[in-house]
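# step 3/5: fold
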Amino acid sequence: MFKNSIYKSLGLAVLCTAYTACKLPEVAQRAENKNVPEGFSDSKDTVNSASIQWKTFFTDPNLVSLIDTALKNNQELNITLQDIEIARNDIKAKKGDLLPTVGYGVGAGLEKVGRYTSDGAGDASTEITPGKGVPDVLPDYKFGLQANWEADIWHKLRNAKQSAVNHYLSTIAGKNFVVTNLVAEVANSYYELLALDNQLDIVKQNIKIQSDALELMKIQKEATRVTELAVRKFQAEVLSSKSMQFDIQQNITETENKINFLLGRYPQPIIRDGKSFTDLVPATVQSGIPSQLLANRPDIKQAELELAAAKLDVKVAKAQFYPSLSISATLGYQAFNPSYLLRTPESLIYSLAGDLAGPLINKNAIKAEYLTANAKQLQAVFDYEKTILNGYIEVANQMSNINNLQKSYDLKNQQVKALTESIDISNALFRSARADYFEVLMTQRDALQSKLELIETKKQQLNAVVNIYHALGGGWN
């Protein structure tokens, strides 16, 4: 009879499990697309500059020192390191769910039962003191151990732990991505600072040229060769250049403070040498092949790990539909008198129980969690594909940018030489009355603008090299 009851219970559990499994809600599934073009443009060279360490890639010792300080002190990077610790602790928590939990308890109390209850009308033969029965108010003392364990039948707990491991590895990849961003941002800001220094020098030199031209106009006015209008025009030009000087000085201050912020320190001068800025030759960058982005770029690796975690989360949510087996046990001592508490086996108590429970009716909450987990998995697929596509486009854009900037720089350099020579020519023509003051003025203005644009183009060249190094995934290894 007892065996028949067990078989019926097990049969009912199997039927409930089968019914639950058959009624799982339908979800959309989509495999990620890892296909990328075979090469950037027509090149299929596998040599990749991303494998070069940043201390080797950047040759300026001042810049290397700044980046090294930023990697030690930057607050955003330190925040990311704490994210890694949080994820590591989550692994420990999920691992603990796989193991039995054991606790202890100590208790004492009083109990008064009603006489006309099943307890109160029971056997009162037990004597607390000789010749006296059970009193109305009965003390109770106990201590012992309690243990609980859930059998991981459907790998729900193991999948949850592996998902936590993937999240942990994802935070490490996220930290590496922060490092690449930080290295690139410090380098770009450093080159911007050098460019501003050179632009300031050019403006100061131009103020000297314009001031000399202003004095020439005053002399020519005395000789009645020009009017007061020419003097006023050149005076306004000098004042405009002096105003530009202060604008550049303000930009220098802000750029220095931006670098100091990245380095996690309060404002102070940035050590640099910008005298040979225009002679700097941008480093040659090898882009390798697009498939290498999957291993080199930390943001792609992070998206891949988040996708793996999302897939496991779907399995964990699916396991909620199946019954779970829990086992609990207790072992301890209990007595109404402290002097009896350690008597064995009279005061010894123990229990062992197993529970098989699963959802049967009204599973809306579990369904919602399952559908949400699947939607997040689809989001992770799209995010992974978007990150790969973004990485490829960033590299392609910067490769084109480097090529076009070099052509632009060569043309602007010729323009600067031509306009610099035209300043002396216009002055000579003006002295011989073969050119008016307006031609002299415009020549000086065009020469200044072309020199500033040349510096800006040089900065863009250096930034493009930094950006493609960053786009390839360099700077974190």
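# step 4/5: annotate
The mean pLDDT is 88.
# step 5/5: archive (pending)
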